[in-house]
Amino acid sequence: MAETATAVPTRRDFLFIATGAVGAVGVAAAVWPFINQMNPDASALALASTEVDISALQPGDSLTVKWRGKPVVVRNRTQAEIEAARETPLSELKDQAARNANLAPDALASDANRAAPDKENWFVMVNVCTHLGCIPLGQQGQYNGWFCPCHGSTYDTAGRIRGGPAPENMAIPVYSFLSDTKIKIG
User: Fold this and answer.
1) Looking at 149, 151, 180, 181, which residue is catalytic?
2) Which residue in 13, 64, 69, 114 could disulfide with 9, CB within 3.0 to 4.6 Å?
3) Taking the model in full, what pTM does it have?
C-alpha cells in the first residue's frame, strides 16, 4: 500500500509566489500609461457624436450641422420628395449601394434604406460630394435633390447620385433618434 504525502508549503514557496505577484503588478503599473495614452482625448471624444434638435424643422426645411469636421444635412422631406425617391427604379441608379452606415454594406439604395427607419420624412446625410469632396447645394439640380456646382454632379432627394462624375451616393452617417425631436449623430 502506497502512502501519499502532501507537500507542506515552505517559506521559500511563499516568497516565490509573493515576489511573482508584486512583479506582475509592477509591470502592469509601468505599462498602463503607455497603453492609456493611445486612447482618444476628451476633445476627440466630444466630436465623436453630436445631438441635434429637430423640433423646429417643418416639412421642406433642412438643417446643417458639423460632425467630425463634415457638414451633415438633416432634412424634413416633403411628401413629393419622398414619392419622387420611392418611384425611382433601382436600375436607373448609378450606384446601387445604400452607403448607409446603419445598414449592412450590401444593402440596396432604395429610399427606405436611405431614409430614417419608420420616419421616412427624416433624411440624414453627409453633405460631401463623392467626386472630389465639394459641398453640394440643396434642393437644386434636375432631381430637386443636391447639385454640386464644382463639376455638375446631381443627386436626387435621397442623396443618390443620378448624374455627373461622382461615382457613389452620398454617405449616411450612423445616427439614431433619441426622441421625436432629437437625433444623435455618431
Assistant:
1) 151
2) 13
3) 0.73
